Amino acid sequence: MENRKINICILDGYTLNPGDLTWEAMSSLGNLTVYDRTAPENVVERALEAEVLLVNKVIIGEEQMKALPNLKFIGVLATGYNNIDFDAAKRHNIIVANVPAYSTESVAQMVFAHILNIYNNVGKAAESVRNGDWVNSVDFTYMPSPQIELNGKTLGIVGLGNTGMATARIALGFGLKVIAYSSKQTLPEGIEKVGLDELFSRADILSLNCPLTETTRDLVNKERIGMMKNNAVIINTGRGPLVNEQDLADALNEGRIMAAGVDVLSVEAPKADNPLLTAKNCYITPHIAWATVEARMRLMDIAVMNVRQYVKGENITNRIC
């Protein structure tokens, strides 16, 4: 099995590799075809000859699997895999593997990029200087916006998986008090375990680092925002639907909380009428927390390992189905 040449097809490779990485290691494992993007109606045509299919967000369900008789392995170029129908994969004897924990440090870094942007307003100050305000100042310094110190503030983390723990470690280094809502029975030293309502009421900064489930959908809503301090900040680098976007926009516009930093939205790319796009003090990045060069290189390496293990007939480390 190790020496045979298989057909490998990547349907949406652009997000992993927009041109700054190489597919060389993957192409050494078989006949590789890469598409930057694939519309739903083109999936079957493009993947028809593939034994190995790699996707990021392209949906592969029962309909596609039925129409792809050669398909034996689906590799998800991400950690989340809700775009794959697992029941259908089991019925069709298709192996599914993902790439876990490749972006932990990068996402935790983005949590603090948003926090520091809100607390220090570096971008706004730099823009003010560029506009000539410092040149025209009569004083040696001036303050275009308030500066707030992190030391002594309370960071509330929802979810203490890999990313939540990495976020907590950074927070402790900044002198933040860390409280967390977690399913873990015991938490590391320096992190206080609290209930969800207490976390919302005590947190100066709330960071969402939990998975999206039916329990966590709309976790941040009007009722819970009402428990928060009026100078609180919400950071979401988890999943967009963790937040009721209209409720958050209303709270920001009405000054019931200070600011929000979000890297994810409920629909991506967002619709023009998403209320957070025009909400006051809402800072949105386009789902890039995972996408540092280093994280994408790790993602590539692990995806190649998954395929190599399949080709060699080995146990697949990251097999999920």
What structural class results from the helix and strand content? alpha/beta
Q: Please describe the biggest sheet, giving its number of strands, its sense, and whether it closes into a barrel.
A: 7 strands, parallel
Order of helices and strands: EHEHEHEHEHHEHEEHEHEHEEH
How much of the residues is beta strand, in percent? 15-25%
Oligomeric state of the chains in view: single chain
Helix content: 25-40%
Low-confidence parts: none
Overall body shape: elongated
CATH topology of the largest domain: Rossmann fold
Straight-line N-to-C gap: 21 Å
The whole-number mean of residue pLDDT values reads 96
> How many domains would you count in the coordinates?
2
CATH hierarchy, class of the largest domain: Alpha Beta
Features:
single chain, 321 residues, alpha/beta, Rossmann fold, 7-stranded parallel β-sheet, 5-stranded parallel β-sheet, 30% helix
